[in-house]
Write a structure and sequence with these properties.
- The chain is an alpha/beta fold.
- α1 runs parallel beside α2.
- Helix content is 37%, strand content 20%.
- A five-stranded parallel beta sheet has the order 3-2-1-4-5.
- The protein is globular, with a radius of gyration of 16 Å.
- β2, α2 and β3 form a beta-alpha-beta unit.
Length: 151
Amino acid sequence: MSSDIFGTVIVPIAGPDDAANTARIVYHYAREDSQVIVVHVIEKGEGVPDKASVEQRQAFAEKAYQSFLDVFPDDGPTLEFRTLYGRNVGETIRDAAEEENATSIAFVPRVGSRWIKFLSGDVTTELFKRSKIPVIALPKEQKRIVFTHDA
């Protein structure tokens, strides 16, 4: 395992569309010798019935993983996929990163209003709280900077 920030990186994805965009961005930053562990968290209800069955949520996670694979080049870093289960998404991701001895957590922030974040909890804030390893918010899209040299 490499000791730098992109040695073993935990990459959370929310769904298929998010996974495809995240794959493009992560590939841009990761190296060939990086280990990328892509995770999707299935939230457990707190004493209330779940909106979808575990099987439906697992199938959704599999679609997200396939979406990531469809975009991520074959010549890239080592990929692993893990489905996690927990009540608090950010805390579940942090715990997984610690268990894997990850060197960082890297994610592409999701779009959402403050009202939605207030009602559902803000995963981004939770990721940064009490993290023992670096948490990297990657740009929402890959931007290339072109330098020109005037002769």
